[in-house]
Design brief:
Distance between the termini: 86 Å
Number of strands: 6
Structural class: alpha+beta
Strand order of the largest sheet: 1-2-3-4-6-5
Number of helices: 4
Order of helices and strands: HEEEEHEEHH
Shape: globular
Strand content: 25-35%
Largest sheet: 6 strands, antiparallel
Low-confidence stretches: 144-158
Helix content: 25-40%
Length: 158
């Protein structure tokens, strides 16, 4: 069974009343919605054709300049580990350098419960990765030091 844009539009009209955590759903274009939750989180949700799929995107934070290299390396590693396991990827927005979580879901059985399940899963990943991006200083502090300090000596010429 093919899932069409018209079915997605019907689901989006049902999603708000059926999900108490959703504060607002704003239809930005015919195939794009901004879903705002009561915790101040918002997800950009869009319909894509060929193949039919639902894209979700949200900003999860901006790393501090001092921790940026560590965060970016961790995100690249996470993308590698998530391949084939989860349908989310991490990306950077330009020019701000904010970390974005992007999810791609097949619509499946085109039901409201399936859409809600995908949104819950996406929010779970967003929460976990935002901890990494925002609270990097404590994560780095907990890591054991892998290198020993190098002792330097001054050589004198005789």
């Amino acid at each position: 069974m093919n899932f069409e844009l018209s079915e997605m539009q019907v689901l989006m009209h049902q999603l708000g009343p059926a999900t108490p955590e959703i504060v607002t759903i704003i239809q930005q274009e015919i195939d794009n919605w901004l879903v705002e939750f009561d915790e101040g989180i918002s997800i950009d949700l869009s319909w894509q054709d060929s193949p039919a799929r639902i894209m979700m995107c949200c900003a999860i934070g901006q790393p501090e300049a001092i921790n940026r290299e560590y965060v970016y390396a961790s995100l690249l590693g996470a993308n590698l580990l998530l391949t084939g396991v989860a349908s989310v990827k991490l990306a950077l927005s330009q020019p701000e350098g904010e970390v974005m979580l992007v999810g791609e879901y097949e619509p499946g059985d085109a039901s409201l419960s399936n859409l809600q399940k995908n949104i819950v899963e996406f929010l779970y990943y967003a929460g976990r990765f935002s901890e990494l991006v925002i609270d990097t200083a404590s994560v780095i502090a907990e890591q054991p030091c892998e290198t020993k300090p190098v002792q330097t000596q001054r050589l004198s010429h005789v």
